[in-house]
Specification:
6 helices, 5-stranded antiparallel β-sheet, Nuclear Transport Factor 2, Chain: A, alpha+beta
Length: about 190
């Protein structure tokens, strides 16, 4: 009789252990947090781009990167994101432009522009470059300069195009830096607006 009691106790013990394990497994599966690896956003990629190692090689690539930053800047960014992106944009600026455009002034202007754009529901839809043959290059006092023209397509109430001319200067590290830009008046522009 003792062996029947012993088998019953062993069976109860094994069944209880299995039940506890099943409950623990269920609890683990229900409450586990899934580790997800999120792809970085385009803004995060731009902010984290190491321009010391991967600086754009040509004036066109510099303006393309800058334009991509602009396009992302005027979206729904958090304050820390647009400030970080504004700082990253400054890495593409020539020393002369940095001198006349202090960091505080630049960030304040960005804040105001972003608010204006948000209120106007304005955004950059696209940008494109004019023909490379239209880029003007010159050397003055041993320093290389180049002008690149870019067409930005904006959307506010409707779509419209504005052309900008960027002037870049090669610095002492042979990196093309943005010296400035200007809006090209429609009378000088080659773009047809539909």
């Amino acid at each position: 009789m003792g062996s029947a009691k012993q088998r019953t106790l062993i069976t109860i013990f094994v069944m209880s252990t299995i039940a506890v394990l099943v409950i623990l497994l269920y609890h683990y599966l229900v409450n586990r947090t899934e580790v997800s690896i999120e792809e970085p956003t385009e803004v995060e990629v731009l902010i984290n781009k190491d321009l010391e190692l991967y600086y754009p090689a040509t004036p066109k690539e510099v303006v393309k990167l800058y334009s991509n930053m602009l396009q992302n800047l005027y979206t729904e960014l958090e304050e820390d994101e647009y400030k970080a992106l504004g700082l990253k944009m400054r890495e593409l600026y020539d020393e002369e432009l940095l001198e006349i455009n202090s960091l505080d002034k630049h960030i304040n202007q960005l804040s105001n522009e972003i608010l204006e754009w948000k209120n106007a529901k304005r955004r950059i839809v696209n940008f494109s470059f004019d023909n490379d043959k239209d880029n003007l290059s010159r050397v003055e006092d041993g320093v290389e300069y180049q002008i690149n023209n870019v067409s930005y397509t904006f959307e506010e109430r409707s779509k419209f195009i504005e052309d900008y001319s960027f002037i870049l200067r090669k610095d002492e590290n042979n990196r093309w830096k943005i010296l400035g830009w200007r809006l090209i008046p429609q009378s000088e522009s080659n773009n047809d607006i539909d």
